[in-house]
Amino acid sequence: MSGSVQVTQKLQEQQQQHHYESSCYLSTKSSVKQQSFSTYKTTSRRQKSTVKTEKSKEVVKLSPLPKRAKRTYLAMDTDEEVIGYVIPVFRANHEVVRGLMEAQSKEEFTEEGINYVAMRNLFVREARETVDVKVEKKTRTTHIRETAGRVEFSKTMEEWIEFRKKMNPDSLTHTPEFIIKPRGQTVWEGKTVKLHCTVAGWPKPRIAWYKNNVLIDAEAHPEKYTVESSFNMHSLEIKNCDFIDTAQYHASALNVKGEVSSVATIVVKRFQEGEEAGPLDPKPHGFCAEHGVTFETTIIDKFEVAFGIEGETMSLGCTVIIYPTVKKYQPEVVWSRNSVPLKPSKWVHTHWSGERATLTLVHLNKEDEGMYTLRVNTKSGFDTYSAYVFVRDSDVEVEGVPVAPLDVRCHDANKDYVVVTWKQPAVEGSSSILGYYIDRCEVGTHHWAQCNDAPVKYARFPVTGLVEGRSYVFRVRALNKEGVSRPSRVSEAVVAMDPSDRARLRAGPSAPWTGMIKFTEEDPTVGIVPGEPSDVVVTEATKSYVVLAWKPPVQRGHEGVMYYIEKCMSGTDSWQRVNTGMPVKSPRFALFDLEEGNSYSFRVRCCNSAGVGESSVCTGEITVGDKLDLPSVPGNPVSCRNTDTSVVVFWAASKDVKHLVGYYIEYSVVGTEEWMPCNNKPVKQTRFVCHGLTTGSNCVFRVKAVNAAGYSQSSSNSDAVVVQAAISVPGKSTGVTLLEAVKDYMMLAWTKPASNGGADIRGYFVDYRTVKGDVVGKWHELNLKALTTTSYKAENLKENVFYQFQVRAMNMAGVSKASLPTSALECKEWTITVAGPPVGLHVLEVRDTSVVVLWEPPAFNGRTPVNGYYMDVKEVSAGEEGWKAAHEKANKMKYMKVTGLKSGTSYVFRVRAQNLAGVGKPSAVLGPILAQTSPDTKEIYVDVDDDGVISMIFECSEMKEGSEFVWSKNYQTITDASRLTIVTERGRSRAIFNSPSLEDLGIFSCVVTNTDGFSSSYTLTEEGLKRLLDISHEHKFPVIPFKSEMGMELLEKGRVRFWTQVEKCTSACQVDYVFNDVLVTQGKKYTMNFDKSTGIIEMFMDSLEVSDEGTFTFNLVDGKAKGTTSLVLIGDEFRELQKKSEFERAEWVRKQGPHFVEYLGFTVTKECNVLLKCKIGNVRPETEITWSKDSIEIAEDDEDAKKIERNDTDLTFNIGKISKADAGTYEVNLRDDRGKDKSVFNLTDAGYQAVMNELFRVIANSSTDIKVISTEHGIILYSEVTYYNEEQRVGWLHKDTKIAASERVKSGVTGEQLWLKINEPTEKDKGKYSMDIFDGKDGVKRAFELTGKAWEEAFEEFQRLKLAAIAERNRARVVGGLPDVVAIQEGKSLNLTGNVWGEPAPEVSWTKNEKELVSNERYQLKFEHGKFASITIAAVTTADSGKYALLVKNKYGKEAGEFTVSVYNPEEEENKEKK
Hints:
- It is a single chain.
- By secondary structure, the chain is mainly beta.
- 13% of the residues lie in helices and 41% in strands.
- Strands 47, 48, 49, 51, 52 and 53 form a six-stranded antiparallel beta sheet that branches. It has a five-stranded mixed beta sheet with strand order 4-11-10-6-7, with no helix packed on it.
- It is extended and about 150 Å long.
- It starts with a helix and ends with a helix.
């Protein structure tokens, strides 16, 4: 019976372990958690029959399992009441279920696989009983026990078989049902709403969302919808809800058993008070009950449309004002790009300071381009602001290469395979893109490896050969004929792993477990060859590669499977294995190097350690080629004006395009062939605002579509459009006032709108209504035809009736909104005698410090005509008391230039009219006007052309469609064309004076209509007109300008050159050469030359003769311009020139032989040596060169011959340090067969003095600054020179007074030192000292300030040295009398006397061997007369030998006179010699 007990026990243990592991996993992973939890509790109770806890030991019972431990699949509660049934899953025949699972999305497939494994492991395990048989003798009791165990085991197996029968797949499946249905919601406009539901069903149903029965495609509209599914929980997120999002939303669940749906209604509410808010109007806010206030949000300091360059850092920011302020309450600030909320990352940084929201984009890339929106959410509502950010490509390193691709992403990641996609760049470079290179880099390293050898044209590429479990990032580079682009921004990191493992990692562990529970295949599958894969299909096919996908086999084994791929070319039966080297792990494979156009069949085999399985069903013939076509050409673009720097472009979408990535828009300025991208990131909508254009440029646009296959052909060009602001209706008129009232009419005036909407205002409409108390009537039009003035006479009114009036402006775009109505005005006759207020105030020529104000006369003049005007001006920031008069006397004109304004300050103006009765009421206030010159403002300038035509020119770079130049004189539009002719070309207008005269004096102004007030003026005065007439005359009758008048110079050989130069001339310029009114021509005597490129005119004569005395003239003619220049050579001037000419000719003859280029002269070197030198020319080796002094030739053996040196053409005679002995006449002679020349230098008298003066100059300039040194006698001031000559004068001055020589103050020279000694200096010697060194002319001065610190330091050093000298002189010392060594015979007497000195008299002592001696009978020591110290030793012995010293000392010092005494014994010496 023991064997039966062991079998039963092992079976129980296996069952317990099986149920414990499975139920625990189901509690964390199964979608039917309640059922699994109940099952877990049921099985746990059964386990108590055999296992207690981990802390207690296992209890083994000898009886078989009781029947209450029988396996059950009913879900029980704690009271053992049946609450449900847990559906078991059988691992066997499940092809139908797997087929449905594979049809679902990747995430659903992964999740379904996990649930399937969990449920299978929970309810299905083949028995792994191991029977341990032991051969032993059994008793009857043991045999009975074994028989009972076998019976029990047979019952267990029967139950197991019954269970298998119940696990038929058809009994598992059931229709979907909504556990939690989506719930309807009501939200405010602009909010985000999310619908949730939970669906059960087997096989797992697929969920689809519908809006009003129309399928929602979330992938096509990611900015609007987000659909998520995770473990039977599904959601639909609707972002930035609009009013049109109000609808019924259906969630539909579908599987093989049927379909169910559930409906939820979304209602989007809009804030609305009165008129509907426009897209740019601020959003109203609702009351917040939580805080008891209504929060109002205002966004200011908004960021504009921004332009960045790749690699830069850009910051966007807005200031947000929340009113009222509630303590500790902060709004929610959300940034989004293209309606997708942004999350902080290494590329995106957000900051909220409490007042300012900032978004920083680090290292811009084209992926960052898009519409950026700031949304501020409060408890009362929200407010948003959006602007587009453009990211331009950085400069390419090589001209013509493409720019970098963008938006690199990874898809379908498996164990060794991933698909990389990207978007093509907007700029292909100088040639089309040939393909792309894909690089990969393992995370944690910096090594990039190229994935493809040949460039791929398709913007999608499968990367194989990845290592399982490692993370990778990817980048892409584009290639064209010119080279390779920079790499794109790297992709997000992706892990090479099985999708089911990735799903488990994404789901994360659930409590209470802290790690993942790993499920393995059953042991019986180990060692089994895997089955064949199924559903082998081609998922992608291009010219470069083909991607296969398949489903793993049903039977895979515990160790997993790998795959071999085989191909067969069409028309053959030969199958070739593609991956012979290494089987792949993923159910995906990319095949390269296939021949384009050929057809292939493919199949897959599985393998593991047990072997290679059977092949799958082949795919059928697949032709290698692109399955995705290029997009079709987009429709013709239409461009419309938008702003001064942007244009809106519309186009029709490409037809029948698959997998559209987006569109690129390009523009070109008319007249050029250069196309520039408007966007660097493709957009999917068919409308785009192209920003960053040049105002006034004429541009055309085109569009091209792009998908993974490449670019489409560019669309046709749009019609040309001028970049300028679009026309809109004008703004509101302001300042509607009553000027005059009579019995039946009222005179009204108003100010034109500040904005004309981009087009001239064509007129005004006036409306009126009656007012009776608090009751107002309906508005009626007063005029059916538009008014052209800003005033109107409202007639046919009723007397003593109150009226209100309003005005509307009109331009070509339409009629503006009405102005603010006037107050109730009574129609009754005025009795006012003064003039009414002027009307129509407006400004021109706004500058930093001035402005011109114009107005119209009042409609009501009063009782007498208006005879003048007064203008008041005030800064906007000042109060009513800030009004100041702009002038004192009445202004007769209807305009005035106000000057003296502050730049950057805003002003307001008003005008009052005057008549004989007085000054009337002020006009309506004009302004505020900012005193600031527009950056593009240009002034009128006057030009006089080559024909003498005088004109005024005004240019404007801000011309718009319909803009015109309007010229005025004295601010009255010019209508008389007899005085001026106006010529306008594009942005340039020219006012030409027909016949300028005094009648044209005045202020000329020009205004450009339909602009922001571009205007300028020019005042033509009488003086200015005269100057312009003079310039005009010069242009009509031009004179050729000369840079220089005719000049003359002597040339080599005595030739004479006459020349002049004109500033400018044409190639048609002619010259006549005239002498004494006679035209001369080229010939033997005269040579002429005219270089028209430089304007130089020349005439040469070989020599001057007596007959050449007279006047030389050049006459020039260049078109209608003329010029004349002359030179007069007569009298003494001519004769002097003639002599110079003859001299120059003689010089030329001299230079034909050996000659002196520079005659003998002298120089003094910095070492003060005197050199005689000259330079010779045209010498030969045979040319004789001789030196002589005082007519005596210096021979080679003379001492002076050593002083002669020759260096090429330089000859020198080094006199050295000159003296009077060197005076004399020096001569150098040159001679050979071509001629001779000599040079003489007289070094006597004046020549000698000149040399000495130069020597003095060199010496004087070599002197150093004066220095000071102290001695024991006084202070010495000195300067050093390179050399000193005794003939050179040196003088010293103290306080600019010459110092007389004395015993105390002396000057002199020692060597090369010039000094001044001041003995025993006192305070009187302080001051400025100067040294005057003669340099041959005025002298060189050196000065030194012997004051302050210099005096203190010098005087202190003098005193110190003086005291030291005194101490040295009076110091005690031994001056003589003592020998160095004394040798004396023993027994003799020794007497030595030393002479000593010291003041005062020194103290004297004697020492022997450094021990002081005392006078006694043996040593007699004496000191007599303060000078003599003696020592006497009677009968010396050898003990008296030693080193003696005489020590002397006084207060200034001490000294020792040392000597040695040696006492010897003659007898001992003899004995030593004998020995």
